[in-house]
Amino acid sequence: MRSIFVPLLLAGLAFGYVIVTPNSESGWTTEGPNAITWTKLATDPPEFSIILQSSIVGGIDELAIASGVDGNTGIFVVPPQEEGFPAGDGFHIDFVNATNNSDIFAQSAPFSIIQSN
Fold first, then answer.
1. Where in this chain does the record put each Yeast cell wall synthesis Kre9/Knh1-like N-terminal domain (predicted)?
2. Beta 111-114 vs 28-29: how paired, if at all?
């Protein structure tokens, strides 16, 4: 009985911030604005930084979107960027520790950025 309880307890502790959008069904546009929504647990860090990651060859590798984001709001609207976002597939959003970008709190599902009309 004890061996079942411990993994279940640890599995419960592993969950935290969950990025709801963007996702494979609801991506971004090159012009924006673009929304990021999430859920969180009371035990999650109160704030984080947002990074846009890409696996596109020749595209951006990493773009800092915002820092000091209040995790309690559940939404962050990324304003239109002066140069826009590159169109393509294979993007994802990371929520990271503001003082250590390698400390990832959450990662979105892969999504696409489509050309704005």
1. 21-113
2. parallel
pLDDT by residue (tens digit) across 28-63? 999 999 999 999 999 999 999 999 998 765 556 789
Amino acid identity, position 97: N
DSSP 102-115: EEEEEEPPPEEEEP
The residues, any chain, with a CB within 8 Å of residue 115's CB and separated by 6 or more, are 29, 30, 87
Q: What is the pTM of this model?
A: 0.83
E strand or H helix that includes residue 11 = helix 2-14
Backbone angles phi, psi at 63, to 5 degrees: -135, 120
Tell me which amino acid residue 33 is: P
CATH of the domain at 89: 2.60.40
Q: Is residue 3 part of a domain?
A: no
What distance in Å separates the CA atoms of residue 101 and residue 64, rounded to the nearest whole number?
10
Q: Is 84 helix (H, G, I), strand (E, B) or coil?
A: coil
CA-CA-CA-CA dihedral for 79, 80, 83, 87, to nearest 10: 110
